């Protein structure tokens, strides 16, 4: 471990914040600290150090092998540094017969202290800085859906049909409600802003909401929440999956982004306007217009797996078209009712919880800022179901279809300069390369369905 240029960090931590973090570690008698970061795919990575190294790591960073950022693939940038963000310190709930533990999220930087171009956290920070320069504070809350499954082999996990036939907002069986309650209690103990949680439409399907927060804080919380859900489920003999469409005949799981835009300084809502006919401000229209204009290019980041597009195709409250609406849950962007004087939300409905939240918010915000900058006007809101419309009718309405496969989404992304700018060239190229290889691998795969369907022909 050697030092780096501390003053060049994406956000230089105040000495008082470092001192407060160190005092909290001492107060709770912490023994081990997990230095956490995200790879490009959105997976949580961690390096564990003893508590007595934390002070030095705050000031000098911790050197690690940069191949961890790209799934082990060797890159020229081998020596990178973890720079802990003291504001992210979380004291983990105590576990029986285990040392006390804490976690810190980190920036990934080069030795000169500049952000590593492949660090998703720094990528989102760059977009948030552009937003702040324009006088905007972008905050997001989420609804995260997932399934709790019976333990089994990875390829033979059934929904819990024998113990859970519950549906939307039903109480459900104790094995599921107890798991959900433990997840909520754990997240609250970790100071994560939890909203409501309830049983979703599918058997064994759950929803958990996180309250609005700044982009970096929310993305950190999403990464942590996924890990907590998996860990609690495993301890209770279950398996959690965030797959967008794990079962053909059950509803898919999304992760809707409830986006707010407020003034800097002042914190006033910029998305509502009581003087407009529908209560939606001109800034909100341009925000929506930008996201609709780049909806196809965003898809490969918001819906990042081949499985994601099976959810979008199933017709169950998932968008297929780049539209906005006040009511329709089949729209890409929905403007829920809001109380005058409160904050308006623009609900982006296509993402699922397999996405990298840092990159998802980077492209969502980048597209919105592009729309505001260029005065992009969206088509009229559509609350009708467009599934039966042909291309001529959609063209007449000024509506485009969302990509129907990861391959289509990658082609759209490759030609979208705003998405490239939002991600930076390094991550943009990495996503295209890795995901194109994944798409080719998927297309070459011969599935059991094909054997059953065609094996005797």
Terminal Cα span:
63 Å
Q: Mean pLDDT, rounded to whole units? A: 89
Q: Architecture of the largest domain, according to CATH?
A: 2-Layer Sandwich
Strand count, sense and closure of the main sheet? 8 strands, mixed
What share of residues are in beta strands? 15-25%
Q: Which H/E pattern describes the elements?
A: HEEHEEEEHEHEEHEEHHHEEEHHHHHH
Question: What do you see in this structure?
Answer:
The protein has helices at 15-27, 54-60, 120-133, 174-189, 215-235, 282-293, 295-302, 308-312, 357-374, 391-396, 406-414, 417-423, 425-444, 448-454; strands spanning 32-38, 44-50, 62-65, 79-84, 90-91, 101-109, 136-150, 194-199, 205-214, 238-241, 255-263, 324-325, 333-334, 346-348. It has 457 residues and is of the alpha+beta class. Strand 8 and strand 9 form a beta hairpin. The longest helix is centred in the middle third of the chain and has 21 residues, at 215-235. It starts with 14 loop residues before the first helix and ends with a helix.
